[in-house]
Amino acid sequence: MQIQQIPITSTDIANETLKDKHLSAILTALQNGTDLRAIGYKGREAEYSMADGCLTLGQRVVIPPKFRQRLLEDLHVAHIGIVKMKGLARSLIYWPSIDEDIERIAKCCEPCLNNAKMPPKTRSHHWEYPSVCWDRIHVDYADFLGKNILIVVDAYSKWMNVAITNSTTAKATCDVLEGMFSLYGIPTVVVSDNGPQFSSSVFKEFLRIQGVRFHKTSAVHHPSTNGQAERGVQTLKRALKSAGATPNNLQHFINAFLLQYHKSPHQTTGKPPSVLFLGRVIRSRLDLLKPDLQRRMSEQKITNYSGNVRSFDPGDRVMYRSFAQGVESWKPGVVANKNGDLHYEVRSDTGQMFRRHIDQVIRASLPKKSVSLADEPVARPITPRTSIRSPVDSPQSSQAHNASKPSRESMTAQPRASWTQQTPASPPRQLPSEAPAPAAPARRYSLRARKPITYPE
Ligand SMILES: [Zn+2]
């Protein structure tokens, strides 16, 4: 059976999209930011976008030809009929002739044709539409291959519960219903036909004790009062029959049917029963086709949370983890480069460059002054510029001090004039200067200091 095949994932789709000449051309165009209309694509194809290496149309994944037949089989596995299959496809997958293909496959299938022909309302008793889930349920028995199947349909959501029972006695029926009530609560109204188990005093007493307020049975000669359950019975039986269910695998096929039934939009409500009953679209293997962008994004967020919410920019004053001489400590420095989210190049205040993980870097508001203590043989003539800037001992002001040192300029071979006008955005040439041997501390000093300088004017 198709359902045993390994499900197709969005990765498969992405791979196959690349291999397909037509689709990969569209993908490439999108990757290059080309407007599809501008290069001749029309109709829905022109509306394609891409996600995770797959083409998408709205929320639907565009399926390469190779997988179309298999997915048609997947859609068809529960024989839910043309309309439901189209509805299900509409939330998941797309290719240009998908509607026609679904029609073709369903038109060759008697159970699907029957489902399609079934007018939803004509013979049914007019029930007031309940305002909440599980307020009114319809129950009925089906027998299939000698097995008894109790079917319970929620009138509001069309959610269906199905149980194979060993017998159809009132006691057996009550046991099953009690289990369902334990999951979903006690309905206000239970509707059934006049079968012996439902008319029995045991059943009525059970409902009364549970707290069901009304038990409605179909009028004699008017079986359609319980039409909702009956339709469920017919739909299920046809699906099981055409799926080739046997007594041994009956439960398996019931499960397969229910999964798809609950996921597909219902003709009456226009929504999948799972949406009305559970408040969400249930996942099935068909969802593997969708690029899981949301998860990818949230995983990314989690990664970030595990330590990377922090980040630094070149020029930021930091303390970095030093391992000099086998001793771990925090030393002052300046971020020189950002190599990805996690890795930085930090220039120590003595002018050396170190590569550090973000976990080994913390923000520091140290005045640059402290820096010079490290290895600053050069005298420190203070330029007036600093005092103008800010009286506070901010990193900038201290850097300004450094910047103005005469020794530095000479080393960097940069004319003083340009120096003073330099914005902090001009640090690239500092890197090479780091490398030089410690023999020229003055020069390193100047370089380092220069980068973060900001001259507000
Ligand atoms: Zn079918």
Give an overview of the whole structure:
The protein is 42% helix and 16% strand. A hairpin with a 2-residue loop joins β1 (49-51) and β2 (54-57). The protein has helices at 10-19, 21-31, 65-76, 82-90, 98-107, 110-117, 170-184, 196-199, 201-210, 227-243, 250-263, 273-278, 293-308, 369-375, 384-389, 395-403, 406-412, 416-421, 430-434, 441-450, and strands spanning 49-51, 54-57, 60-62, 93-94, 136-144, 147-154, 160-165, 189-192, 214-217, 317-322, 329-339, 343-348, 353-357, 361-363. It is elongated. The strands form three sheets. A five-stranded mixed beta sheet has the order 7-6-5-8-9, with helices on both faces. It is built from 20 helices and 14 strands. By secondary structure, the chain is an alpha+beta fold. The structure holds zinc ion (ZN). Residues 76, 79, 106, 109, 111-112, 242 line the site of zinc ion (ZN). Residues 76, 79, 106, 109, 111-112, 242 line the site of zinc ion.
